[in-house]
């Protein structure tokens, strides 16, 4: 099956960047595979993960993979046609129970969130129709404007501390991203940003999200708590 059916939700758009893949065509290829090979197949396997044995198990597995990509496509378009943006659709999108119960439909590699946004991008592009977002400043120009509007970088760090205390790491990351783009040498902002990214990584079901969050922490010049613990143990063992 190459990578057309794997034991997780695949990427419709890789986080590293690529052309958006067509989930409707993907679903069609899986239907073709079922109709062509399922009746005479004893085992199905792909480039990654483990094989699936037995006719009934093969048909169930491939059918659920097919239905997953078809559902992502059709329901994203349904909500798009109701006027929702990609970000809004990603927040409200839920898999139906029949698919959610299957282990291999979960976002351990791809994710519902970024796949839904990819489908939106495939049909609508980057612009969501809001004229206030048609010509924004780039990050290094817009960040200091936000920071000034919020009362300065120390105030932004205070607001981020409250968000962290409330468990709202997504909002903390947004605030601290502006802070670090305003002053990349602000030690408190860099430390809070690194710690926030680590918390987001711990909460990520998706391995690629986790990697981006932890890589971002490392870009801030900070080791993860696990690496800090190993370093402390090494120092104590040599003292």
From TrEMBL:
Pfam families in UniProt: Alkyl_sulf_dimr
Residue ranges of domain Alkyl sulfatase dimerisation in the record: 85-217
Organism: Mycobacterium kansasii
Domain of life: Bacteria
Record-level Gene Ontology MF annotations: linear primary-alkylsulfatase activity; protein dimerization activity
Gene3D superfamilies listed in its UniProt record: Alkyl sulfatase, dimerisation domain, Metallo-beta-lactamase domain
Protein name: Alkyl sulfatase dimerisation domain-containing protein
Transmembrane segment boundaries: none
Regions annotated as coiled coil: none
Biological process, per Gene Ontology: dodecyl sulfate metabolic process
